[in-house]
Amino acid sequence: MSIAAVADRVKLNVSTRNVLTLDIERLPGRARHQHRGLTIEGDFWDLSGWKHLLGYRLPPESVIEWPRTICVAWKFYGSKRVEFASEWGDGREEMLRRTWDAYDKADVLYGHNVAGFDTKNLNAEWLTLGLNPPSPFKTLDTLKEARKTFGFESNTLASLTDRLGIATKTDKYNVEMARAACAGSKPDQRRLKAYNVGDIHASEQFVDRLRGWIPGHPHNVVGKIDDRPTCPQCWGDNLTPNGTTLAVQIVYRLYRCDDCGGNVRGAHHSRAAVTRSAR
Ligand SMILES: [Zn+2]
Q1: Closest by alpha carbon to 46, among 32, 34, 28?
Q2: What pTM value is reported for the model?
Q3: Cα of 99 to ligand 1 centre, how many Å?
Q4: What is the CA(114)–ligand 1 centre distance, in A?
Q5: Which of 79, 105, 146, 184 would you call most buried, defined as having the most Cβ atoms within 10 angstroms of its Cβ?
Q6: Are 266 and 230 contacting, i.e. CB atoms less than 8 angstroms apart?
Q7: For residue 138, how far is the Cα from the chain centroid?
Q8: Which residue ranges form the domains of the chain, and what is each CATH number?
Q9: d(CA 207, CA 233)
Q10: Integer Cα distance of 259 and 5 in angstroms
Q11: DSSP assignment, residue 136?
Q12: How many whole angstroms from 107 Cα to the centroid of ligand 1?
């Protein structure tokens, strides 16, 4: 089956919820540090970054400039439009506020390493700005899912989408481009934007490709009038009974989703056992 056919088959069935795909780009920080009579100055992403050189973490006192988010791209599922906010286009505060608004509206968040990286960095920047936390949302982090389920040797978004035949970005992030963009270079701003926006398309298509394999996908809690069981991964109701599945003590009804292929556990069917192991 072609990639296009797979994507068509599994498009999220009902967009009754705000499903957000988001990706941030960052600029590394700068540090100047005295070590054995030498002054070392350079970029860092985190304070352990120079450990191979120094043998210890950089002390925060040596930081001249902290790493920061410089642009953000996002898209709501089902919308064609990719939004973009940047330090140079919006100003730093407005960029962070617009990003906060997108989070605040979202019920479900998609992204590659979005839980460990994007959300945490943005939280720190929102707190610094004095903002409240956005409304609660559920995260589906494709990096976590990939690591958990598959044995791919590399779990970068570029490598995974490439191996799965998903058309992906052609460019690569580099610090010089990011720094030049912040300094006002229009060609570098355009390149970074194209890269950032390209990642959004790749991320969303990647989630669609993973449907069926991501049992932790947040369910759409809005019930249907006829109360047919629905698939947690694509929210469709094309479920075919597929026998039962056994938990430790209870047998549950099992369905196969005809849209995304996911295994769906239904309501309690019967008790598997009336006894338990004694420990
Ligand atoms: Zn499904």
Answers
A1: 28
A2: 0.89
A3: 30
A4: 23
A5: 146
A6: no
A7: 11
A8: 17-28+67-210 (3.30.420.10), 220-279 (2.20.25)
A9: 10
A10: 11
A11: P
A12: 18
